[in-house]
Structures are given as structure tokens and as C-alpha cells.
Amino acid sequence: MKAVKMKSYVLRNAGFTLLELLIVMIIIGLLAALIGPKMIGRVGESRQTVAKQQIEGFSTALEMFKLDTTRYPTQEQGLEALVVSPQGVENWKGPYLKKKFVPKDPWGNEYVYVYPGENGDYDIVSHGADGSEGGEGEDGDVVSWE
User: What is the pTM of this model?
Assistant: First the structure.
């Protein structure tokens, strides 16, 4: 059997130096610092888009409810009437939402259902990130009439 000799330069170049690792870490940190704030702004926009889509889904379900029962749910019955048959309502053929519950808005708050509405037959409102009426940007209201 022959003994295999390894050249010493192979062993010396087999890994990364501490300096190389630090440079890579600094580059990753800089990229995260530059890109991170832009992505956080996108999260707020996407939540408002989700709220608009959910409100549109409620509107479709409310129209189906009205087709079956000849009226919209009262304010007391609220959006819950889309998933649970309200007392005294005939011809309810729900649930009218895919999920068997009324989802909260993307910020974890309840949607506000007003019937009769001030801006249409009914109004549906999400008060945004701050959970209170009004506001701008991510705190702004998302409404059914716009």
C-alpha cells in the first residue's frame, strides 16, 4: 500500500476566515436595514387590501341573504346572520360565508355593520390599525361604499 500524501495548502484553504464571515454578515445586515423598512410598509397596504376583499365578500353574502329572505339582516342581527340563522327569519339558506364564522378584520377587530346604512342599503366598516374612526394610512377606515 502506498501512503497518500496531502499537500498542506489544501488544508489551509479548506474554510472561511473570520474576516470573510464578518464581511458577509455586514453585507446581510446592510441589506436588511435597507429593504426591511420598505417591506414593513407593504404589510400595512396588504392588510387594507385584505379588509377590502373581506368587505366585498360580506357584500356578496348580504345580497344572497336578501335574495333568500327578501331583506338584509337587522343591525342587531349583524353579520352573524350570514353564518347562523337568526330567529324569525324564513327561507334562510345559509351559511352564506365559506367559513362558518364571521372573520375579524386583519388587525383583529370586529367589522362594524350598520343597517340601514348612511351611504347605501348597509355600511360595513373596518377602523384600520388603530381601531378607531378616521385616520390615515394604515390607521384609515376601510369602508363598503368606496
Answer: 0.69
